[in-house]
Amino acid sequence: EEAEKSGYENYMLKEIHEQPKSLRDAIAGRLNELTGEVVMPELTLTKADIDDIKRIVIVACGTSYHAGLIGKYAIESMTDIPVSVEIGSEFRYSANRLGHETLVIALSQSGETADTIAAVKGSIKKGARVLAITNVVGSTVSREANYSIYMRCGPEIGVAATKTFTSQIVIMYMVALYLGTMKGMLGAEQNIRMVAELKALPNKVQRLLENERYIMGLASLFRNAGQFFFVGRNLNYPIALEGALKLKEISYIISEGYAAGELKHGPLALITTNIPVIAIATQCATYHKMVSNIKEIKARDASVIAIASESDGLIDQLVDFVVRIPDSNEYIAPILSTIVLQLFAYYIAVFRGCPVDKPRNLAKSVTVE
Ligand code: G6P
């Protein structure tokens, strides 16, 4: 087992550090830099098939559900297809009228999560087509589905998902690009730019990981906090949810992820000096709105840690601590912010003496409904 950890303290830290490679593998051979096209022979949907799709339902559990929420933003902005995202265990209760015009995307690292399998089987029965995105070749979800894309992350042993989450996001982007291109909704220039951003991602992750000590220092400073809030807007909202989930899972700290614009509808009542808030405030269309939210939070004297872009010259004056990520477009920045939050949760858990790879009461793959 020690050999498998390649010198790391535990699997989770190893898997966080594997992300430059797992992301490189996720895109290898699947993107054409010159034309901006996605090359995914496993996605055998023809142009006619895609034109038939009237809506997409993404179904997933846990961390995979958060990747699904990101997928919704990406697909809806790159195509004209409406997307809904459903939690596996709730899927059966929705009055979903699934048929041939529905594409169900089942996101599951293991491909063995009982609720996701049930949703896939139910969808096929109703005549929908299912695209599986999993990490385990030959898993139940991929066998049941009509189309299947693999994440190529290699085994993920830590119970809390890390490298598979970032690969799921990248694959969702590639699916969105593929659908958008087939539907003629994306200009070549837009595609080429996005492909270049995706290709540059692994090196940016590498650079970000060099910041680890600073994140470790922050974790040490906040290790005794009783609660945390994570806030973000747009694509950064699912990342806030995921940051909160990571912290809950491995450090047992009560943490809430919130859409920053919703704070005023309730959670602001909870914000006091004792609750640190992590604000994902990278450069994107909603940046200035995030700045306003941060000011509202600071007015209640909470400590704010912001995750911000390298070139942001404003944020330092507004918050208590800033973690910088390499400048990127609005799709790539959330992936980099995620890795900051993975490290933050990891080190808090380590400082609190928690068993990071095997948190209490949790399983890597939940095979019961
Ligand atoms: C369990 C794991 C989570 C994972 C979820 C969904 O709860 O502890 O890390 O996100 O299952 O798993 P899946 O394999 O379907 O992605």
Automatic annotation (TrEMBL):
<comment type="function">
    <text>Catalyzes the first step in hexosamine metabolism, converting fructose-6P into glucosamine-6P using glutamine as a nitrogen source.</text>
</comment>
<dbReference type="GO" id="GO:0097367">
    <property type="term" value="F:carbohydrate derivative binding"/>
</dbReference>
<comment type="subunit">
    <text>Homodimer.</text>
</comment>
<protein>
    <recommendedName>
        <fullName>Glutamine--fructose-6-phosphate aminotransferase [isomerizing]</fullName>
        <ecNumber>2.6.1.16</ecNumber>
    </recommendedName>
</protein>
<dbReference type="GO" id="GO:0006487">
    <property type="term" value="P:protein N-linked glycosylation"/>
</dbReference>
<keyword id="KW-0032">Aminotransferase</keyword>
<dbReference type="GO" id="GO:0006047">
    <property type="term" value="P:UDP-N-acetylglucosamine metabolic process"/>
</dbReference>
<keyword id="KW-0677">Repeat</keyword>
<keyword id="KW-0808">Transferase</keyword>
<dbReference type="GO" id="GO:0005737">
    <property type="term" value="C:cytoplasm"/>
</dbReference>
<feature type="active site" description="For Fru-6P isomerization activity">
    <location>
        <position position="364"/>
    </location>
</feature>
<dbReference type="GO" id="GO:0006002">
    <property type="term" value="P:fructose 6-phosphate metabolic process"/>
</dbReference>
<dbReference type="GO" id="GO:0004360">
    <property type="term" value="F:glutamine-fructose-6-phosphate transaminase (isomerizing) activity"/>
</dbReference>
<feature type="domain" description="SIS">
    <location>
        <begin position="46"/>
        <end position="185"/>
    </location>
</feature>
<keyword id="KW-0315">Glutamine amidotransferase</keyword>
<dbReference type="GO" id="GO:0046349">
    <property type="term" value="P:amino sugar biosynthetic process"/>
</dbReference>
<feature type="domain" description="SIS">
    <location>
        <begin position="218"/>
        <end position="359"/>
    </location>
</feature>
<dbReference type="GO" id="GO:0005975">
    <property type="term" value="P:carbohydrate metabolic process"/>
</dbReference>
<keyword id="KW-0963">Cytoplasm</keyword>
